[in-house]
C-alpha cells in the first residue's frame, strides 16, 4: 500500500476548486457528483479515508475562481492539499459562444479562448505559489470542456481550439489535463441533464473515471 502524507489530522486532504461541475449541478442524492466520486476513488486506491473541501460556485467564471484562491480559507486548504481538481472555463466559453452566435465575430471568440486559458494558467501558478511552503507532494487535475451544444457543429471547432491550448498547461509540474471532451464526444445528449448544460449522474461518473485514469502521481 502506498504511503500517504498526513495533512488534516491523520487524513490527507482533497481540495476541489471550480464552478457548477464541482458543485455537482445535475447529480442526484443517490448518485454522487464528480467530486464525491473522485474522493471515493482516492480512498479506494490508497486504502484510507480522505478529507474533502470544496470551493465552488454555480456560474463561476475563471476570474472568479482565481479570486476565490485569495480567500484565507481557500488558501489554507490549497496549501495543505495532497490532491486538487479544477473545473473552470465552462462559463467563460458559454458566454463567449452565445455572443459569437449573435454577432458571428470569430476574432472575439478566439480572444476569449486565449484569455480564459491565460486565467487558468494563472490559477495554476497561484496554486503552486500557495503550496510552495509545503514540502509534501501533491497533484493537480484540470478537467477540459465537453460540448454542451453538440447540435451546433461549429462549436466543436472552437472547443477543440480551447482544449488544445489548455493541454499546453501540462508543462506545469504535477499537472495533468483530464480529457473529458473526448470521453463525452458523440454521446453528449446521453450524458447531459435536461438543461443541456450540466452532466447527468452517468456524465459525472465518466468525468471522475477520466480524471482517475490519470493516476495520482507524484503523491503515489
Can you walk through the features of this model?
By secondary structure, the chain is an alpha/beta fold. It has 10 helices and 5 strands. The chain has a 5-stranded parallel sheet with strand order 2-1-3-4-5, sandwiched between helices. Helix 3 (62-68) runs parallel beside helix 6 and helix 5 (90-103) runs antiparallel to helix 6. Residues 1-8 have low confidence and may be disordered.
Describe the SSE topology.
Blueprint: E1 13-18, H1 20-23, H2 34-46, E2 51-56, H3 62-68, H4 72-79, E3 83-87, H5 90-103, H6 106-131, E4 139-143, H7 154-167, E5 175-178, H8 180-184, H9 188-191, H10 201-212
Parallel strand pairs: 1-2, 1-3, 3-4, 4-5
What are its keywords?
220 residues, alpha/beta, 5 strands, 49% helix, 12% strand, disordered N terminus
Amino acid at each position: 500500500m502506498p504511503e500517504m502524507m498526513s495533512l488534516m489530522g491523520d487524513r490527507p486532504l482533497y481540495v476541489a476548486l471550480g464552478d457548477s461541475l464541482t458543485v455537482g449541478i445535475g447529480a442526484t442524492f443517490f448518485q454522487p457528483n464528480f467530486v464525491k466520486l473522485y474522493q471515493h476513488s482516492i480512498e479506494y486506491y490508497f486504502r484510507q479515508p480522505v478529507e474533502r473541501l470544496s470551493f465552488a460556485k454555480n456560474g463561476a467564471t475563471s476570474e472568479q475562481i482565481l479570486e476565490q484562491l485569495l480567500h484565507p480559507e481557500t488558501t489554507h486548504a490549497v496549501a495543505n492539499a495532497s490532491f486538487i481538481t479544477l473545473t473552470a472555463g465552462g462559463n467563460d466559453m458559454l458566454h463567449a459562444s452565445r455572443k459569437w452566435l449573435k454577432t458571428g465575430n470569430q476574432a472575439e471568440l478566439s480572444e476569449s479562448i486565449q484569455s480564459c486559458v491565460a486565467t487558468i494558467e494563472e490559477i495554476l501558478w497561484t496554486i503552486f505559489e500557495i503550496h510552495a511552503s509545503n514540502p509534501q507532494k501533491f497533484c493537480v487535475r484540470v478537467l477540459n470542456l465537453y460540448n454542451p451544444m453538440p447540435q451546433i457543429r461549429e462549436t466543436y471547432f472552437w472547443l477543440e481550439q480551447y482544449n488544445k491550448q489548455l493541454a499546453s498547461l501540462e508543462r506545469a509540474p504535477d499537472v495533468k489535463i483530464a480529457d473529458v471532451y473526448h470521453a463525452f464526444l458523440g454521446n453528449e445528449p446521453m450524458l447531459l441533464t435536461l438543461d443541456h448544460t450540466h452532466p447527468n449522474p452517468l456524465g459525472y461518473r465518466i468525468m471522475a473515471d477520466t480524471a482517475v485514469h490519470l493516476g495520482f502521481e507524484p503523491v503515489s
